[in-house]
Amino acid sequence: MTKAVILCAGRAQRLKPYSDSIPKPLIKVAGREILFRTVELLRRNGIEEFVVVVNEDSKEAIERFLKGLGINFKMVVNPHPERENGYSLLLAKDHVKGKFVLTMGDHLYSESFIEKALKGEGLIVDDKALYTDPLEATKVFCENGRIKDIGKRITNFNCYDTGFFILDESIFEVAERLEKEREKLTVSEIVKEARIKCYLVSGEFWTDVDTPEDLKNATYSLIKAIVQNSKDGLVSRYINRRFSTKISALLVDHLSPNQATLLSFAVNMLAVLVCFFSPALGGILYQVSSILDGVDGEIARAKLETSKVGGWLDSVLDRIGDFAFLFALSFHVPPSVFPWVLLAVFGSLMVSYTTERYRGAFCKSPDPVIEKLRFLPAKRDERIFAIMIFCLLGLIEEIFVLLAVITNARVFATLWVVLKSEEA
Fold first, then answer.
1. Is residue 106 part of a domain?
2. CB-based contacts of 17: which residues, under 8 Å, 6+ apart?
3. Is the pTM of this model over 0.85?
4. How high is the pLDDT of residue 345?
5. CATH number (domain holding residue 174)
6. Which of 45, 85, 352, 406 has the greatest number of beta carbons closer than 10 A?
7. Which domain holds residue 275?
8. Distance CA 228, CA 115 (A)
9. Is 113 within a domain?
10. Are 178 and 237 in the same domain?
């Protein structure tokens, strides 16, 4: 399966005034056009050809946009968009053979949703609808693995229509038959008549953008979904992400990931300067930089702009920022504490180094291996939060003792876990 049909012929009447100047599929959510997201994620997962059904008004803009992506696509014009999306699907008949993906030009999906959906067959359904309005979503009643009923107003249902399908060309036989019987034809009517299979992808991010309210909520929902399975430390998971996701939603249209990295680093350096005069205020700013440290990754994933250079830059600047802050803090302790200072700095740098060296040596994430250490706090977000608390309490010497103990304990625990793992 290497081909996808994307239906973009709707008039978007409910999305005015946003759709007055630009076709709905080209409206940006989290810094990227809706259509770009669909095409890019499908392309990353092996889809090589795209059939895009448009209306007369949107043809020129969408065609120009797709040419800019450098993809293999065929444009099909629906001269009667008022006949609904089932008629648009039927118009793609001559350009599709065998199995193909069908999706809508106003739907958003996460990469993990796409990966799971492409393993299925029929209508991809969800039993949770975590990121879309369940009242507005199309409901589906699946029985014995196939669609029995589908519609927005049905009351007996057990899942939701995600707008994503894995079909084959036999669907056009049903579409042709129904098209002869009715003026308007929806995809829902076609797949119900065909009794296609249901395939469950539960709890992943998907939503459609029909109204200004949908558009307003989509960016934050997308960013929130991106971090739901992140292997964060305890502080990031329960505190930092609550703030960073909201900040990312505000900045995603204005900053690149690298600019967000530099913003976090700038706040970190400000915290260093302030720390020389006021450890308490410096600690607060250091914690603010830790919150902002999550923004670059959230923006990168939301805009589909993750890069090795960006990850490297973030990691390097984090190490510089950590060393600089501990250096500034050391001016507030007597010389007798310096052995603890050295151990704290060494351990703080080695926690990150052991993790990154695992990634470099084995060319994969260390998360599955060091997951056993999740209850041993010493990750960067946890260290920074502890530093802030101790600074506010005026316990500067105790900060270095604590960091020296927990960071070096985690380093040696990591060595033990890796040596005992299958990789060793």
1. yes
2. none
3. yes
4. 95
5. 3.90.550.10
6. 85
7. 227-420
8. 16
9. yes
10. no
**Total domains, the chain:** 2
Q: What pLDDT digit, counting tens, does each position of 75-104 carry?
A: 999 999 999 999 999 999 999 999 999 999
In this structure, is residue 398 part of a structural domain? yes
How far is C-alpha 3 from the geometric centre of its chain's CA atoms?
24
233 and 324 in a common domain: yes
Which whole number is the average pLDDT over 219-224? 92
One domain for residues 205 and 237: no
Q: Are 23 and 56 in contact (CB under 8 A)?
A: no
Cβ-Cβ contacts under 8 Å for 31 (sequence gap 6 or more): 252, 253, 299, 302, 303
For 102, the 3-state DSSP assignment is strand
How many helices (H) and strands (E) would you count in the chain? 17, 13
Instruction: Please give the structure tokens belonging to residue 120.
Output: 């299925």
Please report whether residue 367 resides in a domain.
yes
Between CA 346 and CA 349 the distance in angstroms is: 5
Residues 115, 253, single domain; the answer is no
pLDDT digits (tens, 9 = 90+) for 308-318: 899 899 999 99
Question: What percent of the chain lies above the pLDDT cut of 90?
Answer: 78
pLDDT in tens, 364-391: 777 776 776 766 788 899 999 999 999 9
